[in-house]
């Protein structure tokens, strides 16, 4: 019977000084670097997982994104599972049990003490305690091997192969991985993208919704790569729900397009107007770490970076005035 590999990655070093509640606590620079280093190490060791299970808490989410980018692993491989947040062993095992039987290698990204408890449970009696008393410090990665199905993991069924700490991985490895991600080859379909331009009327006033970028450094609209199996419009609807936490009526045809440079090429984005009818609650929104704002069109144009996108806001305003 072929063996299975479980990679257990603890989130990177987080920032306790921001005043954010625990769930929304971000990574510090050291935490982001550690996450990239571990992703690069996984790729170097040829341990890239078939499935990633991640807590959706901000520090775990950012760790997962950074590690996946360093591995060259699409984020669609990730399952954001609420059970992984501050989870006891029972919940972690339940999340693993939901993995497909075809997955030979799975990575979980989450929090202590649950992750250390999971390692002790699976490799019972065969875990040496380091001098500092931490089996899995921040950004550390444990590799376990077992033959059991993901649905049948029992106490003591695994062997702990290694625990790798970020300090054991050269910083240069992360830099090399970052360069490959930024300039290396990506699938052609990545350059075809779609977005929604969300709007609503409050009384007789038009409002446009913008959202914070992943790093919170600028204002954007819900946008993403068009998945091969989806139409541009359906892909835009998917991004609206995931990135914006919104539902509504999307026009059949795009309002227009804009281009931007990335991955050594040019991405073309089709922008669909969306009359928003529902904003889902924060606890149901997949990317609730973002901020979303409703603004008058003039303020939205001022905040958006892309010149062509600002023109589309103006075009939408004129179009709606004619209705």
From TrEMBL:
Gene3D superfamilies: Nucleoside Triphosphate Pyrophosphohydrolase, Phosphoglycerate mutase-like. It comes from the Bacteria. Its cofactor is Mg(2+). PROSITE patterns: NUDIX. Pfam families: His_Phos_1 (PF00300), NUDIX (PF00293). GO terms for molecular function: metal ion binding; pyrophosphatase activity. InterPro entries: DDP-like_NUDIX, His_Pase_superF_clade-1, His_PPase_superfam, NUDIX_hydrolase-like_dom_sf, NUDIX_hydrolase_dom. Substrate binds at residues 18-19, 59, 82-85. CDD domains: HP_PGM_like (cd07067), NUDIX_DIPP2_like_Nudt4 (cd04666). The active site is at 11 (tele-phosphohistidine intermediate), 82 (proton donor/acceptor). One of its GO terms (cellular component) is cytoplasm. Coiled coil: none annotated. Keywords: Hydrolase, Magnesium, Metal-binding. Residues 189-317 form the Nudix hydrolase domain. PANTHER family: DIPHOSPHOINOSITOL POLYPHOSPHATE PHOSPHOHYDROLASE, DIPHOSPHOINOSITOL-POLYPHOSPHATE DIPHOSPHATASE. This is Histidine phosphatase family protein. It comes from Candidatus Accumulibacter proximus.
């Amino acid at each position: 019977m072929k063996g299975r590999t479980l990679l257990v990655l603890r989130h990177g070093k987080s920032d306790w000084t921001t005043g954010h509640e625990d769930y929304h606590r971000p990574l510090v620079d050291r935490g982001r670097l550690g996450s990239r280093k571990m992703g690069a190490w996984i790729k170097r060791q040829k341990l890239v997982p078939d499935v990633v299970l991640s807590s959706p808490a901000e520090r775990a989410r950012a760790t997962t994104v950074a590690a996946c980018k360093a591995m060259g692993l699409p984020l669609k491989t990730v399952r954001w599972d609420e059970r992984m947040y501050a989870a006891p062993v029972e919940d972690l095992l339940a999340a693993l049990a939901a993995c497909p039987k075809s997955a030979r290698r799975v990575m979980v990204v989450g929090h202590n003490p649950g992750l250390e408890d999971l390692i002790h449970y699976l490799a019972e009696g065969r875990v040496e305690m380091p001098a500092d008393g931490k089996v899995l410090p921040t950004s550390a990665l444990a590799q376990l091997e077992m033959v059991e199905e993901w649905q049948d993991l029992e106490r003591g069924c695994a062997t702990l192969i290694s625990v790798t700490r970020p300090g054991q991985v050269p910083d240069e490895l992360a830099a090399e991985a970052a360069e490959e991600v930024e300039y290396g080859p990506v699938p052609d379909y990545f350059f075809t993208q779609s977005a929604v331009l969300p709007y609503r009327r409050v009384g007789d006033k038009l409002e446009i919704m913008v959202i914070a970028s992943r790093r919170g450094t600028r204002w954007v609209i819900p946008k993403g790569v068009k998945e091969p199996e989806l139409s541009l419009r359906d892909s835009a609807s998917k991004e609206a729900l995931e990135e914006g936490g919104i539902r509504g009526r999307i026009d059949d045809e795009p309002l227009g397009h804009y281009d931007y440079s990335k991955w050594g090429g040019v991405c073309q984005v089709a922008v669909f107007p969306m009359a928003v009818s529902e904003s889902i609650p924060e606890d149901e929104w997949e990317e609730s770490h973002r901020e979303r704002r409703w603004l008058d069109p003039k303020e939205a144009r001022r905040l958006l970076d892309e010149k062509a996108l600002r023109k589309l806001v103006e075009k939408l305003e004129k179009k709606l005035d004619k209705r």
